[in-house]
């Protein structure tokens, strides 16, 4: 039991070290990346769940790197809040691999980046040091830039560049904020900061508040709050289909987690509520993002871009919940973080699956999907329903707690915005649902199908007559014809193989949908994980 | 002690309901025997079960319910309902009623008894609705003309039941309990108003009464005999539970008017059962008047008259039923001289008619006399009941007149031109059982008074105007009143007999059905059209926003075009009709600028 904290540095170190392995092996073998990543993430799932188990039964696990005192050295902490995120990161990272095995992107370098990203995300989750957090933010950022850039075409490169510059600017803002706070307190450890910050505020409120301002703006950029969200839709839309689920589910979630961690564990509710305009500012930014993000989502034609704007809106909800500073709102924000991550991973995976296999990327192209591919369409519908927040689903529980928090805080406009956000979510989800279920498929798809049948030698009834005529004419060389037939068949089968949805992809999508629904039932359970220990410690 | 405890577990409605099922399953004679026995058991239980609340429990966790509540009132009503039930089942058996019909009728009787023994409003509402449903089925079972009448009956009673339900709900809101308040009844205000309306349907308030002559003459005569007593009388008893305190002037005068209205229209009827149906209203008028006055003598008189009415009104329906059974004729002007053909029926009819017209020696005389005394300002009545006394007086004359008319045209008035046998033995037993009881309680009024609530047992005293008074039904003044009434009526009948047979009046109360029909039709049309309008609006609204979402550029275009002083160039689509989108892409530089602005604002606000 005493050595369980050794797992903490391993959570970060192992994926980062192993990220070099695919490249090294790539010198001799072609496709080792996926196996290495799968092994690593599976191990990480085991490690995080073990640690989470320890955290929820025995309490917080800490580890001092190199044995340095927390005041100077780096401390890794896993408490009730971060354990949830760590498990989410590990499980999602492992799960999305089921998609990328067939769905791509492939290549050893991709999996190197993937592991680096996973390590960075886990680092964000477990670090107890504000500067160390910056380092992990940068690691995650760099890995993400690289992965987005791995998409085909110039748009990916542009999107990655945009994200690179803006993300770095955001992180720099954060770093400046950390610098100001360091000036005020002389420490970088979160636990110690929380203790000395009240005194520092009394001594020099300007310094701490300016520090907060930089941190807040930096994270608004990172979490993609309107109007600083501009990098996000491009990045999500142009990233490879296999990458978007990870980025959408984990990167923004990890940033939002880090923001919440700073707000509640470093600055503390006391500072938040006592500083004039602070909570109002945070709530306003969140609410504006909710409305603007949803409105922008409604007018999109590209499905992935629509989901990207939806993320702007959903993270607006979380930021607004942070700003409410009530226990229920915080629980709601946490549940919504997890629930939204699961739902968005599923939605982007489903969108990718549909894009790759059925070549449908815009809302209009989704017409008639339910008839042709009922399982995929049904899963997507379930995920959308969860996103809207129809009970019982993950989306509902989070929004419920946040709305409860708004009511407790007597901030009726916020409560209205939260309810309104449900309506707006419904607006863009309904567009997609309507297309999938109630608009018949456009006849444009038909020529493609009949063409492949024609090469098959006339199985189609329409071609029967022609085939009969051809038979009479070609009676002599039936053998040759037979040969061509077989070749054509093989070609078609190969073609179908490429187009067939892999079980891994489908399993991931279905699993996320089921998880989204079951999280709705487990909402109370999630709240219980946080409620007595962490919440009491933070709010009292 | 143990026996009486056992009795408290024997819930009377359940016994009757079980008998109803047995009637359905067993051979006819055996089943009917069980039916009669179950009602005899109700009679016996009513007589011996000690007072108190039984089978109490909670409904849905926290509503206290008392399904089986015994006090002097429910005991008294239970005796009458049980006694009548036994006779009616015998009558039904010998009249050839089918097993199915009797099973339905017995479940109707069970629900009625359940309502009488209810100790809280929740059970009452349940039984009340059950009574409405089962009685409708009793009417429907006959088929033909009765189906439409039964449907109207069901609609009206459904509405009344809903009003009672609202009254009970409002009562619960006001008091926080469903259990009867024996001294105050329903809470003042809304609950009383709603109950007045809802129960007014069942006890045939003027204006809400037309279902009575509309429904009761239509099904088979056996069904009429069942219907005649249970719904109206149980409802009148529940009206007392709702308004047990005194001084309900509206109720008192409504009762007085009902007695005249019912008697007048009874006088105008040709159909024998319609005539009797209007008399239900007239007699209910006396009961309602007594409940409205609410003093101890009035209450005793009302409940006593209710008891008697159960007996003699059913007896009259049975006697007329036998006439219909034997002759197949409903119109009294088509009959005549039947006393020679069916003397037993004539005697039975006479017993009932003498009772209802309050001839001394019959039970109606005792209870009606008490009601007269309660209203008469010279006895126990308050001054404001002077007019009521005269209303009841005139009503009594009307009753006498119409029964003289009914008896005269059916059993006398020349020779009978048809030869028919008399009543069957079972019918005779049933009729003479009830008639005997009428005579018994008229002559041996002390026994009647012993059973009666409010009146002290054995001493026959009651409290009036702050003093203890004795009951004297056969005092000279009472007998004088009876003689005067009878004399006036006899003389009047001779005068009005001829013109009466030519008169034809439609009951103004009958407008309730056409009015209800058109009201329902128009309200339904209005609702449907309103719904359609809302639906159209909602669909158009959603469609428009859906279009705006899909074509933001066109929407902005269209919006701007409507602004004054703005010239918008005609749009030239060059994209093959693809949905137009707004290209809002902030570049890197713009975003950094925005970030700077945001940072400035945040720092300015916070620091």
Average pLDDT, all residues of chain B = 86
Question: How many H/I helical runs of chain A?
Answer: 23
DSSP, total strands of chain A: 2
Number of separate strands of chain B: 6
Residues in β-strands, percent of chain A: under 5%
What characterizes the major β-sheet of chain B?
2 strands, antiparallel
Element string of chain B (H = helix, E = strand): HHHEEEEHHHHHHHHHHHHHHHHEEHHHH
Strand content of chain B: under 5%
Structural class of chain A: mainly alpha
Give the C-alpha Rg of chain A: 25 Å
Helix content of chain B: over 70%
Strand order across the largest sheet of chain B: 1-4
Mean pLDDT of chain A: 81
Q: Outline of chain B, from the CA principal axes?
A: elongated
> What is the helical fraction of chain A, as a range of percent?
over 70%
**End-to-end distance of chain A, in Å?**
29 Å
Q: What gross morphology of chain A would you assign?
A: globular
Q: Give the quaternary arrangement of the chains.
A: heterodimer
Q: Which two chains form the greatest contact, residue counts included?
A: A-B, 36 and 25 residues
